[in-house]
Amino acid sequence: MRAALVSTLVTATTGAAVLLATSASAGTTLGASAAESGRYFGTAVAANKLSDSTYVGILNREFNMVTAENEMKIDATEPQQGQFSYANADRIVNHARGQGMRVRGHTLAWHSQQPGWMQNMSGTALRNAMLNHVTQVATYYRGKIYAWDVVNEAFADGSTGARRDSNLQRTGDDWIEAAFRAARAADPGAKLCYNDYNTDDWTHAKTQAVYRMVQDFKQRGVPIDCVGLQSHFNSQSPVPSNYQTTLQNFANLGVDVQITELDIEGSGTAQAQNYERVVKACLAVTRCTGITVWGIRDTDSWRSSGTPLLFDGSGNKKAAYTSTLNALNSGGSTVPTSTTTSTTEPTGPTTTTTIPGPGGCTASVSLNSWNGGFVATVKVTAGSSAINGWTVTTNLPSGASVTNAWNADRSGNSGAVQWRNVSYNGRLAAGTSTEFGFQGTGSASGLTPTCAAG
Ligand code: G3I
What we know:
By secondary structure, the protein is an alpha/beta fold. It contains twelve helices and 22 strands. The strands form five sheets. The protein has an eight-stranded parallel barrel, surrounded by five helices.
């Protein structure tokens, strides 16, 4: 184990670490169990349900990532051209952040759910309006979004592998990369994803077409960090046998893969087994960094008649919940510390590592910096014996301050900031790791975290 750790930590300095480890302990909620391998477990949230106490109770207990189901879409955030409306999206973002959950942004550019004024536009005027929308919304939420679905559903279904026809597509093939570049400029700390459905089966023309676009973007330095597979499954569109292959092949392009809108119609054991397959496929792929289900209770689903979610209409855990939790607890590849591989940042990610001694713990940081800000991902590793709780101290240079954090409790936001484990990530078996992160303004260069166990 020790030799394996040393080699992993050395590799981590190149940003290409691959650490295989089994989970140390069984979590009791979806978010906690996913966090044990460095992943998140999220759900879509509707702002008008935040007054439903059963809904909010499950949300706060089980999930550590949130996607606004409709509230960040173009028709919601820019109902009139140039007039932005964030009240409902803010309710979701504020609730999530207040609970220490992160937020996936959905979505900046899409052919659907466009406001009337945009539906009627074309050509240069539309291209400029789309880019302005991307810039305005990503700037407004700068520092608060873990990953943006920058572009959603831009490819056609069927066997052509072509782009979907839309007013955005008719502005020119390069509309997608233009959107990604605008998003990167507006929020350099957010991971930028391409998100689509019917991209789960590796043999499908649509999957292949998205793969070729992502490959092309990586080769040409277009800023892209992740691919979202929506993964809406039912009897017409079942979980494909090659699902893990698809996840792995996208990951091999050098992007993270996220399951972004999971739901599986069905009931009982069959549904539970399908959820288990999907979760295990993600856990087997090191760069599959998290799973989001598209709603909490069956009655919250856009496909409610198919009862596709993990909780029934009364909020009870279904068999699919149990199989999902068990699969998350069964262990899997651990997400590596350095996952940001963009070639466009002024400063690329840098990783400092130390090797754990006997007992105690160590902390290493992967820093993704740009002019005026940074995202720090801190990996906490137990030494040669198990620990039950940890405190990490980071000494931020003068002028730097923390704006946002996840997977740890914080005291202070500048100078010597102390980070304490939260309920689900304090217990680490010998040699195993967990991660927390924070975002800030200023420069965090030279950040060297220290770790104390207990
Ligand atoms: O809020 C209005 C309500 O006031 C009105 O009375 C009612 C009448 O139809 O409509 C309500 O709005 C609906 C909205 O959901 C909120 O419930 C819209 O009509 C309806 O079109 C909208 O559907 C959403 C759908 O996207 C639209 O494309 C679903 O909630 C949402 O789950 C779904 O999410 C999409 C992802 O964004 C992208 N991937 C596919 C996924 C499922 O379709």
